[in-house]
Write a structure and sequence with these properties.
Helices cover 44% and strands 17% of the residues. By secondary structure, the protein is an alpha/beta fold. The strands form three sheets. The protein has an eight-stranded mixed sheet with strand order 3-4-2-1-7-8-9-10, with helices on both faces. Strand 3 and strand 4 form a beta hairpin. Helix 8 crosses helix 13 and helix 11 crosses helix 14. It is globular and about 65 Å long.
Length: 416
């Protein structure tokens, strides 16, 4: 098949979404398919096309949310290039400008559109409203999400039952929804694939001793990730275990706030902020950890949890539906409901090395079904299903988008 992945963010931007997109592209190519990417240009305002990697970048403007950019909805210059690819299916990874472009292009040229819903947008409304009009903002997000994910796509994919329930129970969406947990290149994180000397060097660089117990968090440092919970809890942990180090890998708008909180809680000597870490180096950071922790409730899946499990590290997660599909309490990790439970779990792991090893061993076994090959095969099944649907029967909603197009632009598009 000839597949087009349409997304607002791609490399060199680093995020869970980008990781899943790169992984899917590589896995599909290994299965013999041609995969093209349409994305926003994160570096400048120019069009570019990488023939070798098949990546088309469209000029975009900064959104103010991390490093992301937003493109024009109807990039006329890109249409000729994309037409030459003769795509069999479009896989949209975004609800924004390029996502809208994907839907319009699919409608105009009779190409089925598969969409993956990655983000629980209700958890991100505060970036726009700044604390004002939050309820109307959430209602608007609900309307737009239902429109883009129900009325303008052929097939819809979600990574977890949590996202499935959002559409079925809250949004009352009446359509096929495929639950396909996002896969990763799990072998990257296997312990045997990391060089011992690299681990030693990284520990030395971060001032981590062999006697330290390292609790790792990987992710965007922003309000919705609930990193403050880990910092508050660490204050209690080091009262009993002064060798406990909280290793926070990632960057984001609240990094300075969290650094200040580490000083406030008097845990700055036991907390390490790495900032951004290159994608290729990430496996080493998992290998210097003893446990992985997250208190975020904004995930649709939480790929970092699967990465940690593949690295043979027990995961300690907040009791949330987004993690329950992966983490089974006391089998491959631990779930907590509050600060008291979290602190108790970490205390148990530090004291009981047999428990640590048992959970870690089972974690790696549990990560196997999330391989990139298995993920790609399941997504391919959805692509094939999309081909059996009449595009005209599911794109009625696109009319509402087309009404926003300048008449002259629409006429120009129709002549191409």
């Amino acid at each position: 098949m000839r597949i087009g992945i349409f997304t607002e963010t791609y490399t060199p931007y680093i995020s869970g979404l980008v990781t899943s997109e790169v992984m899917l592209k590589h896995a599909l190519e290994k299965l013999g398919h041609e995969v093209y990417v349409v994305t926003a240009n994160l570096e400048n305002f120019k069009y570019s096309y990488d023939e070798k990697e098949r990546v088309l970048k469209i000029p975009g403007i900064p959104t103010g949310i991390y490093d992301s950019r937003l493109t024009g909805i109807y990039p006329i210059k890109a249409i000729k290039k994309i037409k030459s690819w003769n795509l069999d299916v479009i896989h949209s990874q975004t609800e924004f400008a390029i996502g809208t472009f994907a839907r319009i292009f699919g409608k105009q040229y009779g190409i089925p559109v598969v969409h993956t819903y990655h983000t629980m947008y209700e958890d991100y409304v505060h970036y726009i409203t700044k604390g004002y009009f939050t309820k109307p903002g959430i209602k608007l997000v609900e309307y737009l999400t239902k429109f883009y994910c129900d009325k303008t796509v052929t097939e819809l994919i979600v990574p977890t039952k949590k996202a499935y329930d959002l559409f079925k129970e809250k949004y009352k969406v009446d359509r096929n929804i495929h639950i396909i947990p996002t896969g990763i290149e799990i072998s990257r994180f296997y312990k045997e694939n990391s060089k011992i000397q690299d681990i030693i060097n990284l520990k030395r660089k971060l001032n981590i001793n062999d006697t330290d117990f390292v609790i790792l968090f990987v992710g965007r440092l922003a309000e919705e990730k609930n990193v403050e919970f880990l910092l508050e809890s660490h204050e209690e942990i080091i009262k009993k275990h002064n060798n406990a180090k909280l290793l926070i890998v990632g960057d984001g708008p609240d990094i300075n706030k969290y650094k200040e909180l580490s000083i406030k809680y008097k845990i700055d000597n036991n907390t390490i902020f790495t900032g951004k870490v290159p994608w290729d180096d990430m496996p080493k950071y998992y290998q210097i950890a003893d446990a992985f922790a997250t208190a975020s409730r904004s995930e649709t899946q939480g790929l970092t949890v699967v990465e940690a499990m593949a690295a043979e590290i027990p995961v300690v997660c907040v009791d949330d539906d987004s993690f329950k599909i992966v983490v089974i309490d006391d089998l491959n990790g631990k779930l907590f409901k509050n600060k008291k439970e979290y602190v108790k779990i970490i205390d148990e792991l530090i004291k009981d090395n047999k428990l640590l090893l048992r959970l870690g061993t089972q974690a790696r076994i549990s990560a196997e079904p999330y391989s990139s090959k298995y993920f790609a095969e399941r997504v391919l099944e959805v692509y094939k299903k999309a081909h059996d649907v009449d595009p005209d029967s599911i794109f009625g909603g696109i009319v509402a988008i087309n009404r926003t197009i300048d008449k002259a632009t629409a006429e120009e598009m129709s002549k191409i």
